[in-house]
């Protein structure tokens, strides 16, 4: 007889340094589905739910949908929004009748007002509604800040193995497979967590390059050792000012001693290589000059401090101002600016735009920049992601306008454009491959698509709430010294 599995999720990467809080409307605006809407939204997508759906068919699991709510990475989740989402999840769980297991899809770096460990609180609330023998399996993002409370909340947990996160579907399937194993064997794995006093910025967490690539390869080899169910390394999200900040290693297996040895080995490997995580930033003026002088483009200027997928406002102007000052040609920048979009919409295609763009969300990402140019595109932008990162996801950027200011093309959007691919540019009739310079407001995720045709990349030392230089931030909730925020931490703890 097919087992009934309740599937649900609340997903948010919380940048506690961001000025704007995240409300319920932000979840509804980005990703929100209940009941069968979940199946319609995530079928044939490279997401955890999409992967779990595919695995459920193979494993003869009957998925019972709750809700999935995801918001674009941003500031602190309001207490009202968090409570509403958790309460609604519990209502749907209680209305689902008897279930044999639960799949929960989380981020691991969610922070709500008054709830620093929001992901752990979600699992605890679900567990409280279930008989103790009902297994819970959760997924988490590679940037999760793991904690003992989070690990205790589920019988097993599965983290992403790649950054960019092109394995989301595979990890959702793995979570379903582990749950199936529990249901038919009644076994539960031993879970060993090791936390390091180390918080590398996302820019150096890419899994395709050293040092992370070698460490992940070692972890995957260890996963094949007898008795190991799963191993994950969560490289952390340093823009969440929480006590449990930092790299976490989770090893799950049949034998406590065996899992412990693997977790300790991986932890020490990472700790001994902490000095190899170099951000390698270039000043703004030099970066633009070098990109312009390159014999062939596109050259990607990475505005990592204004990372749209890390909680930044995506309206930073530092690179745009420099492109205009240096009279760059064949350069593209995307800026979120609702006010400017509305002005452009009123003028229409062919009109002359003249006004300040960007720099309106706060005073951390550069001031508004005067922009004068012709409006060459204006309409609502909606598209489906076609790359291998969140494939099939439907994106709505709201109204958008493209301004041609000399050699600089500025795409203005109502919603933040997370550059996981170039589909947002294509939807606005901008051909990415033909540009000399493309500014991406990202850390690593841009690589999933742009690296296939880019001729070079430069990480730019810009200011903002996702700055790679963590010394720019004032942390108030850390309970220990953490490298590189502090000169050094201590590991193993004494």
Short description:
The protein is α/β, with parallel strands linked by helices and 494 residues long.
List keywords for this structure.
494 residues, alpha/beta, 2 domains, eight-stranded mixed β-sheet, six-stranded mixed β-sheet, 29% helix, globular
Explain the layout of strands and helices.
Blueprint (H helix, E strand, L loop, with lengths): L2 E9 L12 H7 E4 L1 H7 L5 H12 L1 E10 L8 H17 L5 E5 L12 H11 L7 E5 L7 H5 L3 E4 L8 H18 L4 E6 L16 H12 L4 E7 L13 E6 L2 H17 L11 H10 L5 E4 L15 H8 L5 E6 L1 H10 L4 E6 L11 E16 L9 E12 L2 E6 L9 H5 L9 E4 L6 H4 L5 E4 L35
Parallel strand pairs: 1-3, 1-4, 4-5, 5-6, 10-16, 10-17, 11-15, 11-16
Antiparallel strand pairs: 2-3, 7-9, 8-9, 12-13, 13-14, 14-15
Helix pairs in contact: 3-7, 4-5, 8-9
Q: Explain this structure to me?
A:
The protein has 494 residues and is α/β, with parallel strands linked by helices. The chain has two domains: 3-276, Rossmann fold (3-Layer(aba) Sandwich), CATH 3.40.50; 284-470, no CATH class. 29% of the residues lie in helices and 23% in strands. An eight-stranded mixed sheet has the order 12-13-14-15-11-16-10-17. A six-stranded mixed sheet has the order 2-3-1-4-5-6, sandwiched between helices. A three-stranded antiparallel sheet has the order 7-9-8, with helices on one face. Helix 3 packs across helix 7 (168-185). The N and C termini lie far apart (51 Å). The mean pLDDT is 96.
The CATH homology group name of the largest domain: Response regulator
What's the tally of helices?
Answer: 14
Number of strands: 17
From the spread of the alpha carbons, the general shape counts as: globular
Q: Cα-atom Rg, whole angstroms?
A: 23 Å
Mean pLDDT: 96
User: Helices and strands: which structural class?
Assistant: alpha/beta
Euclidean distance between termini CA atoms: 51 Å
CATH level-1 class of the largest domain? Alpha Beta
User: Architecture of the largest domain, CATH level 2?
Assistant: 3-Layer(aba) Sandwich
């Amino acid at each position: 007889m097919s087992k009934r599995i309740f599937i649900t999720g609340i997903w948010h990467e919380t940048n506690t340094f961001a000025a704007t809080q995240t409300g319920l409307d932000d979840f509804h605006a980005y990703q929100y589905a209940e009941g069968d809407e979940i199946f319609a939204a995530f079928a044939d997508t490279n997401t955890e739910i999409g992967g779990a759906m595919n695995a459920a068919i193979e494993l003869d699991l009957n998925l019972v949908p709750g809700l999935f709510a995801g918001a674009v990475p941003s500031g602190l989740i309001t207490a009202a929004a968090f409570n509403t989402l958790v309460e609604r999840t519990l209502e749907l769980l209680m209305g689902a009748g008897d279930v044999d297991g639960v799949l929960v899809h989380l981020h691991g770096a969610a922070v709500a007002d008054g709830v620093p460990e929001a992901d752990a609180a979600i699992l605890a609330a679900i567990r409280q509604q279930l008989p103790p023998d009902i297994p819970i399996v959760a997924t988490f993002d590679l940037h999760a800040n793991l904690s003992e409370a989070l690990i205790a909340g589920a019988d097993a947990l599965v983290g992403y193995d790649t950054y960019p996160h092109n394995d989301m579907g595979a990890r959702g399937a793995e979570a379903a497979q582990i749950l199936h194993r529990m249901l038919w064997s009644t076994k539960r794995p031993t879970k060993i967590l090791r936390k390091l006093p180390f918080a590398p910025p996302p820019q150096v967490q890419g899994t395709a390059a050293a040092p992370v690539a070698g460490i992940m390869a070692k972890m995957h080899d260890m996963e094949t050792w007898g008795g190991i169910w799963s191993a994950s390394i969560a490289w952390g999200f340093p823009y969440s000012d929480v006590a449990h900040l930092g790299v976490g290693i989770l090893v799950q297996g049949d034998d406590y001693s065996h899992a412990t040895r693997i977790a300790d080995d991986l932890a020490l490997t990472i700790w001994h290589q902490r000095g190899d995580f170099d951000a390698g930033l270039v000043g703004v003026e030099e970066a633009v000059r070098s990109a312009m002088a390159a014999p062939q483009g596109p050259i990607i200027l990475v505005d990592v401090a204004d990372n749209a997928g890390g909680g930044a406002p995506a309206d930073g102007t530092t690179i745009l101002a420099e492109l205009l000052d240096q009279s760059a040609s064949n350069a593209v920048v995307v800026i979120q600016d609702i006010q400017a979009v509305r002005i452009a919409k009123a003028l229409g295609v062919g009109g002359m735009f003249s006004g300040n763009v960007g720099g309106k969300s706060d005073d951390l990402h550069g001031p508004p920049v005067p922009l004068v140019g012709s409006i060459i595109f204006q309409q609502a932008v909606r598209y489906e992601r076609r790359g291998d990162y969140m494939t099939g996801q439907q994106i709505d950027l709201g109204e958008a306008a493209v301004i041609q200011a000399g050699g600089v093309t500025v795409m203005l959007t109502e919603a933040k454009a997370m550059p996981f691919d170039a589909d947002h540019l294509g939807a606005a009739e901008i051909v990415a491959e033909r540009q000399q310079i493309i500014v991406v407001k990202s850390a690593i995720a841009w690589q999933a698509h742009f690296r296939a045709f880019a001729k070079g990349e430069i990480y730019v030392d810009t200011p903002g709430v996702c700055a790679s230089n963590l010394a720019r931030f004032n942390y108030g909730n850390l309970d220990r010294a953490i490298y590189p925020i502090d000169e050094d931490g201590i590991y193993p703890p004494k």
